[in-house]
Amino acid sequence: MKILMIGSGGREHALIKKLLESPKCEKLYCAPGNGGISRDAETVAINVMDNWKRQASAPSVRTPTLRSSRQARCSPRT
Question: What's the predicted TM-score (pTM) here?
Answer without folding.
Answer: 0.59
